[in-house]
Amino acid sequence: MKPYDYQNRKGVKQISWQNFADLVKSTIPELAKYNPDLVLGVVRGGLYPATYISHILQKELLPIRLTRRYQDKIIYTTPKWIIKPTEEIRDKKILVVDDICDTGETSEMIKKELQEHRVAELKTYTLYSHLHGKDKVDYCSLVTDELIINPWDRELFNGLTFISNPEYPKYEE
Fold it and tell me: Helix, strand or coil for residue 143?
């Protein structure tokens, strides 16, 4: 399986930890009005905003995982469920948090799964969305077609030193 085609992105947006915090906080008033009972964080990238949101709103956080990756390599053509939601979500207002919405496929799979668990209400939040995915989520902090470089996956450790994540194309700073 080949990596994502980042070359089609329109520019590059480097996100710092402070940018990340500011983006999440910009949507907190809307999320607080929704007042979820539980926050579900989509492992891996979605756990960063989900953890922050759960602390700010003082709500419990549970993980779910569906992904195209294994050991950080893309191996599935469509997302595969790894960690499904537990019965603890039944009859609860749920906020599902992920880092990005691209095609909306992950979001649709999550919505379908949670309907089977008979949640009382469901809303979705992503930190970012590409233009064609923005209508697939209820809340989003940033809509852009730029390639987003997050602070948590900008660098990797190769056993000796930190290196730039080779998955991303070379870009001008």
Answer: strand
Give the three-class secondary structure for 15: coil
Summarised one tens digit per residue, pLDDT across range 36-90 is 999 999 999 999 999 999 999 999 999 999 999 888 888 998 899 999 999 999 9
Sign of CA dihedral 71, 170, 162, 16: negative
| Distance set, CA 167 to CA 3, 120, 149 (Å) | 7, 39, 11
Q: Any idea what the Cα angle at residue 111 is, between residues 133 and 138, rounded to 5°?
A: 45
DSSP string, 90-111: TTSEEEEEEEEESSSHHHHHHH
N- to C-terminal Cα separation, the chain: 29
Q: What is the pTM of this model?
A: 0.90
8 Å CB contact between 110 and 138: no
Residue 135 has pLDDT above 80, yes or no: yes
